[in-house]
Amino acid sequence: MNINVTRPFLPPIEVYQRYIEGIWKRNWLTNHGPLVSELELELKHYLELDHLLYVTNGTIALQVAIKALGLSGEIITTPFSYVATTTSILWEGCTPVMVDIDPDTFNINPELIESAITERTSAILATHVYGNPCDVEAIEQIARKHGLKVIYDAAHAFGTKVNGQSVFGYGDMSTCSFHATKLFHTVEGGAIITPRPELLKAASRLRNFGHVTAESFDGIGINGKNSEFHAAMGLCNLNYVDEILARRQFLSERYDSFFANVPLQRPAIRGKVDYNHAYYAVAFPDEKTLLTVVEGLSRYSIAPRRYFYPSLNRLPYLDSQACPVSEDISKRVLALPLYHDLSIEELDLIARIVIRTMRYGL
Ligand SMILES: *Cc1c(COP(=O)(O)O)cnc(C)c1O
Question: Does 1 map to a domain?
Fold first, then answer.
């Protein structure tokens, strides 16, 4: 038996095959084909959003968002995220300024943002960690007061709602990843979401090399298009997304019931949130306990993931910036296996090994 932290969802192969036959008939493989258009429409419908672009992946989505907003100088961001959040800022020639996280939610701490703002600050780029929304209202207030743009790295947040609406609706732009390991996926893929049509238009040009027409250009674009084959996977998987969300909630609650009396910290969810249960992360009392549990699980070929680790303020190519809370949490946090076809027996085994190794060691 081999259990990984995640396992991609796959639709019935016959359903995917039907889409592929259509692609063969049309011989239209990429460049804004009919399946890409259909996926964009279906996603907007499902998420109840006005503007959404389907792109190559979640990293390109971040880079295009930064460019579409014309950001420069410093961007305030979080050290507790995947490395792409930081590298996309650097790749676009901006400077990431790390603001530490809230020790309860693991999201960027709004109370620390204002003291990091300088005259060079152009934006805030925050991650909805594990799909758990940032304090979007506090961040919006700070941004408005200081004239800053807001981008959310919402790579984990597909299906999460705040006040009954998709969390993708917040900020000037949000980005999502549809990578195979994510809750909803298109093998590789991502999306850019914005409430502002002019930003969608700018991002749409940037996604297509900056083309306005075949022979005229506006802005330094990139190839951010995605293919009909990827869109086909998305159209298949979208039919299962409610089932996927429900299954994850069921499995997460089963973990919860095992851990009710165990000293494990779970990220706090604040406000009126419908959470998507994208990950099941637990913080141990200390790193030593975490390492013991990792070893205990590995003896059963169970591979959780230290996610996120290391804290991004410690990346070797950044000037050192202290973020004690993020550094502490990232040393103690572990994402336990959670995916659609994880069985109850497997989950129970994982939970029992965690509890046993915490209590008695190896
Ligand atoms: C997965 C992920 C990304 C990158 O998305 P890709 O589609 O793999 O490029 C960016 N940020 C976060 C928080 C992620 O989890």
Answer: no
